[in-house]
Amino acid sequence: MAVKKHLSKERTLVMVKPDGVQRGLVGEIIKRHEALGFKLVAMKTVVAKEDHIEAHYTLDPEWRRVTGEKTIAGYKSKGQTPPSEDPFEITDNILKCLKTYMSSGPIVAMVWQGAHVVKMVRKIVGGTEPLTSDVGTIRGDYVMDSYEMSDKDNRSIRNLVHASGSVEESNLEIPHWFDESELIDYKLVSEQILYDVNLDGIME
Ligand code: ADP
Question: Which of 49, 72, 120, 154 meets the CB 3.0–4.6 Å disulfide criterion with 82?
Fold first, then answer.
């Protein structure tokens, strides 16, 4: 039987998107992950090619359908008519815009590690649309973009940061951006306080 990995080994992919880099938010975004006790195991600045971006967003074969359906439901919940009833047609356009957006300048790709890192990072990143993202989240605190504006200009919503949506997704996304040799295994001294069962070694 396969031994289940300790939760502290969970990893997620985070990318500061071109608008986040231009806004000077790399440090602030890193700070929020560090503050939670997560460990930075890889980081690099890259200018991505459009086909690499398309491959990233379609690693999950369900992404086209789910994103299209989510967008159609979003229009309907606001009493608006979606541009199409076909989720795949909607996503084709989202993908086209994403390729332009995500390859427009440098992005900073990172891998963070720690217990529940996927869920915790999604929590601090916030919902897709900054206008409705919670206060206190990265998207909610640092930008005001909305579907109303991005639709009008037929562009991606600019929301500063990407984070894997699930552990399964992170397992596909991390190798898409990083070679195994770029992921550094090391101990962080604070992990003793976060994960050690008996908090041994504090007292002299
Ligand atoms: P998230 O990044 O919150 O996980 P998705 O995976 O659904 O969101 O979409 C990926 C990215 O595509 C979003 O972060 C956003 O930049 C863009 N996007 C998604 N849906 C739309 C939309 N309906 N209109 C404009 N941009 C969108």
Answer: 72
pLDDT of residue 137: 98
| Residues in the ligand 1 pocket, defined by CB under 6 Å | 67, 71, 94, 98, 128, 147, 150, 156-157, 159, 162, 165
Query: How many Å lie between the centroid of ligand 1 and the Cα of residue 129?
Result: 8
pLDDT digits 0-9 by tens, 143-172: 999 999 999 999 999 999 999 999 999 999
CA distance 140 to 29: 13
**CATH topology for the 35-114+164-195 domain:** Alpha-Beta Plaits (3.30.70)
Pairing of strands 107-113, 39-46: antiparallel
* 55 C-alpha to ligand 1 centroid (Å): 15
DSSP code for 129: S
